[in-house]
Specification:
With 185 residues, this protein is mainly alpha-helical. It has a single domain, classed as Orthogonal Bundle (Globin-like). The chain is built from 7 helices and no strands. The longest helix is centred in the C-terminal third of the chain and has 23 residues.
């Protein structure tokens, strides 16, 4: 998991570790996201984009309900306080999650085409009660889920690419959520 104690943050140290969980305060997680952002998380290399896309193909072959249930079970295990935010059946929520990730990954090399959608999604999440600290636990649950789904295809390079991808998107969502509603169109 992303370690708050790692103030000097080297990318390899900032990636998720499956048996450790972040349970810090909202301010600490937002600060951590800001520190991670200083490592130039605004862009991904072509190789990282290709790696995220090629590994997503493996996950996309799995049943989206199974993938989603694995993700949500992990999320509720490491952050039980977020469970009340999910009022829809997990099966439907799982399909939406996998569909949204697939859409984003498909357009990963053209982020400018979907950033408006990502920002609107952030505004919707505010209405569900999502706070900046939640993005870190969601990221941890997502990385753990990807690790489980990818098995032998999950390695340091893959983890770094996915962490960078998630950090770019989650930072965009956090920034959009903090803006007045009129600015996000």
């Amino acid at each position: 998991m992303l370690h708050v104690a790692a103030a000097s943050l080297h990318l390899k140290r900032a990636t998720l570790q499956p048996n450790k969980f972040f349970t810090g305060i909202a301010g600490a997680s937002f600060l951590l996201l800001k520190q991670v952002n200083q490592i130039n998380f605004r862009t991904m290399t072509t190789k990282q984009i290709e790696l995220v896309k090629s590994t997503w193909v493996i996950v996309a072959l799995l049943d989206p309900v199974v993938v989603g249930q694995l993700f949500y079970n992990r999320l509720f295990e490491i952050a039980p306080q977020v469970k009340p935010m999910f009022r829809s059946p997990i099966e439907g929520q799982s399909k939406k999650l996998v569909s949204m990730i697939a859409y984003i990954i498909h357009k990963l090399d053209k982020l400018s085409e979907i950033i408006g959608d990502v920002r609107k999604l952030a505004k919707q999440h505010v209405s569900y009660g999502v706070e900046p600290a939640h993005y870190l636990v969601v990221g941890n649950a997502l990385m753990w889920t990807l690790e489980q789904g990818l098995g032998k295809h999950w390695n340091d390079e893959t983890r770094e690419a996915w962490v960078k991808c998630y950090t770019i998107l989650s930072n965009a969502m956090i920034e959009a959520a903090a803006e007045p509603m009129a600015k996000v169109a």
